[in-house]
Amino acid sequence: MTAKSVVATLRDRLPFLRWSVIRFAVGGPTFARTGQVGDGREEAAREYVLANSIAGEPLSVLAAYDRFARTRSVLVNVGDEKGLILDAAVSRAAPSLALELGGYCGYSAIRIGRALAPGARLVSVEFSADNAGIARTLIAHAGLAEQVTVVVGTIGDGGVTVKRLADEHGFGTGALDFVFLDHDKKAYLPDLETILDAGWLHPGSLAVADNVRIPGAPDYLRYMRESEGKSWRTVEYDTHVEYQSLLKDLVLESEYLG
To answer: Signal sequence: where (predicted)?
Structure first.
């Protein structure tokens, strides 16, 4: 085994040894407040992806994003391992209209957008205007600006974003086929309940939730388990936290039964 491969193995198995992980932990309060770590990694990721991927090719853009997160600074994308779970769920849902909560810098929006059928749409809701700007740039670079729209806001902002989705983006009774939750973990359940109250889902709609174990969304997990076979049917995927193989995570794919 070469020295380079040893370093790569240690980086993958022992993520805490990476400075970018330590810096992320230090910047946790900043991230919670602003949506960015505070060391410029989000802007650096944008520049890296633009310089190291082929315009108009989503797979090339995603690969560059993954390389940056593995070799430079860890990002809170769904990542390549859990991204395969997301890909498969989108394929099963075959959505005409999809919603993402927590767009960050556009990685998962690109994963979802590239799988959409012609004429289908994804709306990605991101609370950070700075992240939304990065996401729009990279979504356009991937050639998906027609399929994917980024909206700055939150579902829990007192109805402002919900009204905007309804008025400007066609969200209405039974219109929503797919939801990806990857934002504030405490907001998973209340935001899903808001969506349910709005009547946007229909029997067969899918909701996919990332990071249910780490950082954890215990209320959401409890709700889905208690609703099993009643209003939801859920598959739980044991997987790993982004860009390493040590810390276990959990992804939930839940089908709405009505």
So the answer is: none
